[in-house]
Amino acid sequence: MDWLLIALAGLLGGMLNAVAGGGSFITLFALVFVGVPPLIANATGTAALLPGYLASAWRFRKEIEYPANLNLKTLCLIAIAGGCLGAAILLSTSEQVFADIVPWLILLTTLAFIAGPWLLKKRLNPASLTRVNTVKPLTAMIILSLVCIYGGYFNGGLGIILLATFGLLGQTQLQGMNGLKNLLSALLTSIAVVIYALGDLIEGQYLLLLAIMAIVGGYLGAALAYRISQSLLRGFIVLVGFAMSIGFFIR
Questions:
Q1: Is-contact 13 149, C-beta < 8 A?
Q2: What is the reported pTM?
Q3: At 124, phi and psi to the nearest 5?
């Protein structure tokens, strides 16, 4: 049953990450449920979902759009530096402290995803109904750097926060936002996983199965994203976020 649960978590995690984010909630919860300590479960789930990020980023490669006049090189550097710093912070965090803040991180991430569309509407011009993009490149770089540091540290709900951030930076096309989200997630996760491995935070027992299922889920999820309504996706992710948060609070 443990292996079946891990396989399903990898598949669903890869699918969720491909279409909007939140897959790490499922892998983290599943690994903790089968007895892996939260700190190691977070690092292991992050490593396992990396191939899924790569698969879905490739699937969305033609739709990628860049916010606030930033170019690909700048965004890649931000993702790599943020992932490196966030992972380094995780290595210095105790197991108990991490376990205590996990439910709060999940809850805040879910609330950010809910608030994203509402905050985005506040930036519309009521007269012309056109988007007012007032975010300067430097401001966008600072915001994205903080998000990438978070991703290197926790990774849970990273896709949700990235989508909300892209929306606040003026992007509206979910497919294009998904493409960039998966690209940045893959970059910062790659460097974070290397640091996790050096710090001996990755549990090898379930890693391969999670990774294989995440690849399948990542590609399937990217394909399904074109056929599922955005409102339905958002509602499901919010439900998952609240459920995981409650689960960890109870635990």
A1: no
A2: 0.79
A3: -90, 145
